[in-house]
Amino acid sequence: MTSPETLQVLNRVFGYDSFRDGQQEIIDHVTAGGDALVLMPTGGGKSLCYQIPALVRDGVGVVISPLIALMQDQVDALRALGVRAGFLNSTQDPDERRMVEAEFLAGELDLLYLAPERLKVDATVRLLDRGTVSLFAIDEAHCVSQWGHDFRPDYLALSGLHERWPEVPRIALTATATKATHAEIASRLKLEDAKHFVASFDRPNIQYRIVPKNEPRKQLLDLLRTEHNGDAGIVYCLSRRSVEETAEFLVRNGIEALPYHAGLDARTRTEHQARFLREEGLVVVATIAFGMGIDKPDVRFVAHLDLPKSVEGYYQETGRAGRDGLPSTAWLAYGLADVVQQRKLIDSSEGDAAHRRKLGAHLDAMLALCETVDCRRVQLLAYFGQSGEPCGNCDTCLSPPESWDGTVAAQKLLSTVVRLRRERRQKFGAGQLIDILLGRRTPKVIQHDHDSLSVFGVGDDLSEPEWRGVVRQLLAKGLLAVEGDYGTLVTTEASDEVLFRGRKVLLRREPKKQAGARTAKAR
Ligand code: ADP
Ligand code: ZN
Q1: Under 8 Å between Cβ of 80 and 54
Q2: Exposure string (b/e) for 285-301, b if CB count within 10 Å is 16 or more?
Q3: Which residues contact 456 (CB under 8 A, 6 or more apart)?
Q4: What's any GO biological process attached to this entry (predicted)?
Q5: Could you identify the atom of ligand 1 that is nearest to the CA of residue 19?
Q6: What would the mean pLDDT of 131-149 be, rounded to a whole number?
Q7: Side-chain-facing half-sphere of 518: CA atoms under 13 Å
Q8: Which residues' Cβ are closer than 6 Å to ligand 1?
Q9: Smallest CA separation from ligand 1 atom 12, residue
Q10: Cα 156 to Cα 160: distance, rounded to the nearest angstrom
Q11: What is the pTM of this model?
């Protein structure tokens, strides 16, 4: 039963008339002292789920969050509503910290935000012992998952909360969790017996579109000019350099754009973030360092110029679009070079083989999403263990890609890979392979005598972009793999099924025109 007090807090403190989907059940459960694990998409309204119980229950609600840079803003926003909030993290000097600690002990706080590493400090634990904690809220709970894409070792210490304070209810929240991550959060945080609340991950107002990458900046500019003129949006790039260059390119073309990446000094970053939040119609070009916890309702588009490393990351980043529920675009341009580059990053990444396997699996899932012939939304939701119907609001629904029987093309390509592999000392990437298939006598082809191979020129029924599409899709299907520094293509065990056991390969033909966009002239 919802207490009248809960409704009062919702109206008087936060100024809302009603709860959003799921909020009320969660708030009632936690207010009554129950543990909860909450999976709710970005913008779903997770914060209220612990803020209201913290205000209604006796004591101070302790919120554990990795977003140190945002704590000041979050606390300021709460104080503006009359909520007594404070935070403790490494950015404060000892005096500031002591003041917050005194407020906590005097019972003058409703909410205390803590960086996770604070809990490893004995003094913090003793501090919490001396005050009254009404609940623990563990925000961004997926950070405890080693299988997930955003693991933070400090989160592992949170498994001890329950032992130390068995009476205090805990609520863990995340906007991203596959079935496996969900289970891992529950077990690591000892929340198996907690009530699990899983909201739908669908964001129906976001239109998902994934296009082949040709001239990415021009394609982006075209998208902005034709569909998002004057709109606020975020453009994600992989590298700092590409962030800088893309921002400059947009500015040169009359679009107000600001760069954001970890290489900029703190003041510039804060300023750019503040301007993005405050002003209308600004575009931020950023690495993924930007956006966590940013609550700007009217972000009309999120564009990726490089392939995200995982579906979880993609979902979180695109989820920053359209929190106000109005139509928004999630647009991603990706190409073969992305795949090669990401594989290289994985191969050269620190960590053991298991870690690299994990990264590889994340990338594979992302590729499968890019190359699917089915509804993007169905595929995305399926990744998070939820089912759905074809949505009518993604590129594959709006202009269904034709599929074609690519078995023969795949066989030609794979047998070329096998032949090149026999030249053990040499490593060749997709470019050389395609030149051979197309029968091009380039200097490199002649140098290696590749025009004498039996497969030379057997692929001239397809164009170069088509062959690139074939390579990409075979990679996405695990029928081909990339190895080593030079993006060498190699066959996999599954390749044999195509080469020798008659396995059929259905491929996606790229639609000539992208859904909703008039990007044809950009290509
Ligand atoms: P999340 O943490 O799940 O991404 P937030 O808690 O930041 O979401 O909430 C997203 C936005 O929705 C915020 O602007 C918040 O003020 C607003 N919001 C949350 N709950 C309600 C509600 N019951 N009614 C109206 N707006 C709400
Ligand atoms: Zn769809």
Answers
A1: no
A2: bbbbebbbbbebeebbb
A3: 436, 439, 450
A4: DNA recombination
A5: 23
A6: 92
A7: 4
A8: 16, 19-20, 23, 40, 42-48, 175, 295, 297, 323
A9: 45
A10: 8
A11: 0.81
Residue 115 — φ and ψ, nearest 5°? -75, 145
DSSP string, 459-500: TTTS-HHHHHHHHHHHHHTTSEEEETTTTEEEE-TTHHHHHH
Average pLDDT along the chain: 91
Q: Which two tokens stand for residue 157?
A: 């210490």
320, 234 Cβ separation under 8 angstroms = yes
Q: Which of 14, 23, 78, 292 to mutate to test the pocket of ligand 1 (most atoms within 8 A of CB)?
A: 14
Strands 328-334 and 301-304: parallel
Which residue has its alpha carbon closest to ligand 1 atom 18? 45
**The amino acid at 318:** T
CB contact set of 383 (below 8 Å; sequence gap of 6+): 178, 311, 315, 365, 369
Helix, strand or coil, per DSSP, at residue 366:
helix
**Nearest-angstrom CA–CA distance, 117 and 101:** 16
CA gap 41, 47 in Å, rounded:
12
Torsion of CA 384, 262, 137, 43, to 10 degrees: -50
Taking the centre of ligand 1 as the mean of its atom positions, its distance from the CA of residue 385, in whole angstroms, is 24
520 band by pLDDT with thresholds 50, 70 and 90: very low
* Nearest ligand, measured from the Cα of 173: 1
Closest C-alpha among 148, 173, 162, 159 to residue 67: 173
